[in-house]
Write a structure and sequence with these properties.
- It is a single chain.
- The chain has 343 residues and is α/β, with parallel strands linked by helices.
- Helix content is 27%, strand content 24%.
- α3 (118-131) packs across α4 and α3 packs across α8.
- It starts with a strand and ends with a strand.
- The model has no long low-confidence stretch (mean pLDDT 96).
- Residues 9-340 form the Enoyl reductase (ER) domain.
- InterPro entries: ADH-like_C (IPR013149), ADH-like_N (IPR013154), ER (IPR020843), GroES-like_sf (IPR011032), NAD(P)-bd_dom_sf (IPR036291), Trans-enoyl_RdTase-like (IPR047122).
- This is Enoyl reductase (ER) domain-containing protein.
Length: 343
């Protein structure tokens, strides 16, 4: 098969490689569309040569390998792109993955829309229900509580807003002014321009100094410190970040604030070494079980309109991905996901 593989010089090129054989409990998916995430260009710059890039995919089951899936069935999911044990990567004509870690694409959802959901949605699920322990959609809160999503227009942030509403929260989302209409359309109860130097004070006014739960979907350029100042000054609270926070903890003035990073690759259940992220040094069966639970819920959430996919921009095929990664690295991809047609 053809795949986008890392090579010397911190770049990648299309190469002919073998399709990884499925092990027990694994299937092979014929790739129709893939979606791009920030982790893809970051991986290209950091992993050794010979790794297949890419995480998000949508396609059809090529080899069900004795699983409950039928060959030809439309499925979508994400893999730990550029990993080698086991070998994984979505920017390829075929993908080997765990049979329990894909979802059936509803008839009314396109491959393009299906592909942009898995990794970002899984990150939001893990942060909100696995780490913050907010009420789940099956049992939403009876009393409304405030929940802050910083970076609401990011791919993860858009799903966090929607999941926060399903949890029963009063969702406050930050974003640039041009994205406020988008954030409201996703269910945000209040939107705040993070470029306003007094935005944290606005959050404190809105929440009457009662905010205890926050998800920082940016987690860089002092955003974590800013989010911490929006939390209750007396009770503190819990902030989940999408980047490691070991260098930030000592800078948080409110010592009642719990700061915790989350990395979505723990949904595969295996211990991983991924920088200084929390919650990833030991086996993580609880994270895998949570993701399997939400994969089973996802088709109904999509068909009912309770979860809306990110905006899609189709950019070409496998040979267009390198240019798309460069565009992402340069900060030119905002409030949308780049997708590529593989077959």
């Amino acid at each position: 098969m053809k795949a986008l593989v890392t090579v010397e010089g911190k770049t990648a090129q299309i190469q002919d490689v073998d399709v990884p054989n499925p092990g027990e409990g694994e299937i092979i998916v014929k790739t129709h569309y893939v979606a791009q995430n920030p982790t893809d260009w970051k991986s290209m710059l950091s992993v050794p040569p010979g790794r297949i890039l890419g995480c998000d995919f949508a396609g059809t089951v090529q080899d069900s390998n004795g699983s409950h899936w039928r060959e030809g069935q439309r499925v979508s999911g994400f893999v730990f792109g550029s990993s080698h044990n086991p070998p994984r990567g979505a920017f390829a004509e075929y993908i080997t993955t765990e049979a329990s870690l894909v979802y059936p694409i509803p008839d009314d959802v396109s491959y393009q829309d299906a592909a942009v959901i898995p990794l970002a949605f899984a990150t939001a699920v893990q942060a909100i229900f696995g780490r913050l322990k907010l009420p789940e959609p099956s049992k939403p809160a009876k009393t409304v509580f405030p929940f802050l999503v910083n970076g609401g227009a990011s791919s993860v942030g858009q799903y966090a807003i929607q999941l926060g509403k399903l949890a029963g929260a009063f969702v406050i989302a930050t974003g640039s002014s041009q994205n406020h209409e988008l954030l409201r359309s996703l269910g945000a109860d209040a939107v705040i321009d993070y470029k306003d130097p007094n935005w944290t004070e606005e959050v404190r006014k809105l929440t009457h100094d009662g905010l205890e739960f926050a998800f920082d979907c940016i987690s860089e350029n002092s955003t974590i410190e800013a989010v911490s100042k929006a939390l209750s000054p007396t009770k503190g609270g819990h902030i989940i970040t999408i980047l490691a926070v070991d260098q930030i903890r000592d800078k948080i003035e409110n010592k009642k604030v719990k700061l915790e990073s989350t990395i979505v690759y723990t949904v595969f259940g295996r211990p991983i070494k991924y920088g200084s992220f929390d919650n990833c040094g030991e086996p993580t069966p609880q994270d895998k079980a949570l993701w399997e639970k939400y994969l089973a819920m996802l088709p109904d959430l999509l068909s009912s309109g309770k979860i809306k996919p990110n905006k899609v921009r189709e950019r070409g095929g496998l040979d267009a991905i390198l240019a798309g990664l460069k565009e992402h690295q340069e900060g030119k991809v905002r409030a949308e996901k780049l997708v590529y047609k593989i077959s």
